[in-house]
Amino acid sequence: FFVNLVPLNLRARLSVPTHKGKEIWGKAIELAKEFELGKACSGLSSAPDGLATSVPAVKVTLDPDTAHPLLVVSQDNSSVRRESERQQVPDTPERFDTSFCVLGHNDCREGRHCWLVEVEGKRLKDSWWAVGVTRASVERKGKINMSPREGIWAVEYYNDHLKSLTSPPTPLSLSPIPTRIWVCLDCTQGQVSFINADNGVEIFTFTAVSFNGESIRPWFLLWTRGIQLCLRDSTPKTLSPALLPGKASCSRPSPHTPCPAEPSPSS
User: Fold this and answer.
1) Pair 218, 133: CB distance under 8 Å
2) Which of 77, 96, 141, 207 could join 101 in a cystine, given CB atoms 3.0 to 4.6 angstroms apart?
3) CA dist., res. 23 & res. 91, Å (int)
């Protein structure tokens, strides 16, 4: 993934003989950093030629027509929070009516796309949220099964623990828990990666993902009041390769992961 982001005239620097694959990865990362890979992800006009086309710029906005009635999307469609009272909104086929979810407007069908999500609020430690992507055809009515088989690839924070929504869920041992996460979607390679925006460390990567030819949309879940999920325009300073040997990943569709029961009103 990252080797392809290095301009052709510098790829010769990756051909240094080595028997250690990680050294090649390391060189690729350093070259990508030299040419400001982050600017490609954020779509800045000063991104070097070749990089901007490798990682298409994506400005993600939320689609309020898909938001659960207890979720309120900001006027500029850049953040979402949960309220205690249901909003007076039409119950359309597009709207989630049971799970506290909202989708992004964006439809991604090919290429690579990255966007930054930040979790804000005073109750971060005991909050409950998830970020990722989903097929456009994801079920909107009733409780949804949050798993790759149902067309959702995501990481979830709940009860002071972060996990990937495989089945069974895969615990992720990270400290501190990241609250600024890059979601990186590669439609061509069938891969969804999550990266800590503060230090560039990979959180988790789903590989060999089958999108069934559908468009893919950003997906968000928020169960806790006093918390906001915010979409940010930012430039990452560091990124790790999407997959390194030994990293956790899910290469097969997983069985159902039932959506947890709705928490009490005090959540």
Assistant:
1) yes
2) 96
3) 54
Phi, psi at 221, each rounded to 5°: -130, 135
Which amino acid is it at 172?
L
* Residue 161 and residue 171 in contact, taking contact as beta carbons nearer than 8 Å: yes
Q: In whole angstroms, what is the distance from residue 176 CA to residue 90 CA?
A: 40
pLDDT (tens digit, 9 = 90+) per residue, 70-107?
Answer: 999 999 999 999 999 999 999 999 999 999 999 999 99
- Which amino acid would we find at residue 177? I
Task: Output the CA–CA distances (angstroms, integers) from residue 8 to 13, 50, 54, in the order listed.
Answer: 10, 9, 12
Q: What is the pLDDT of residues 186-203, one digit of tens each?
A: 999 999 999 999 998 999
User: Using CB atoms within 10 A of its CB, is residue 11 exposed (0-12), middle (13-18) or buried (19+)?
Assistant: middle
Q: Nearest Cα to 67, choosing from 22, 97, 102, 36?
A: 102
Question: Which among 100, 81, 61 is positioned nearest to 225, based on CA atoms?
Answer: 81
Report the length, in residues, of the chain. 267
Q: Tell me the one-letter amino acid at 127.
A: S
DSSP codes, 231-258: EE----S----S--TT--EE-S-----P
